[in-house]
């Protein structure tokens, strides 16, 4: 009887810990001049973790992309300007594949037939007034082409796609 009670207590404490790990429905990340609302990430096409707890992976993904977008946006935006985005879909580069018992984790296979994709709306604010508004559906079909430096930076393909969008779409409008 004591063993059953201990097992039950363990299961309940693990369930409570997992529940505490749950991410908010629409998390918001901010860094410098960038604010991103991640609208219904559970509905995103592919932000699956390959070995990390999903909620931690999502938090790391959101914070990394926000930080990387801020790095480029701060070069482009003028003083008193801010970029606000509402991300409605993300499909990370690659595709998750099961390992069929070889390991406990799935693997992300990066091939050119699995490009990164993002759908979002955005606005540029200057002194809290909206000066530019738009919606984007980005996809980088040539994400594996060109010269690449070997890097272990996370989400490099998604960052590159957003950086190019900032340079080609936002910078000319300012």
Automatic annotation (TrEMBL):
A Pfam family reported for this protein in Swiss-Prot or TrEMBL: DUF3016
InterPro entries, per the entry: DUF3016 (IPR021557)
Keywords, comma-separated and alphabetical: Signal
Residues annotated as signal peptide: 1-19
Name of protein: DUF3016 domain-containing protein
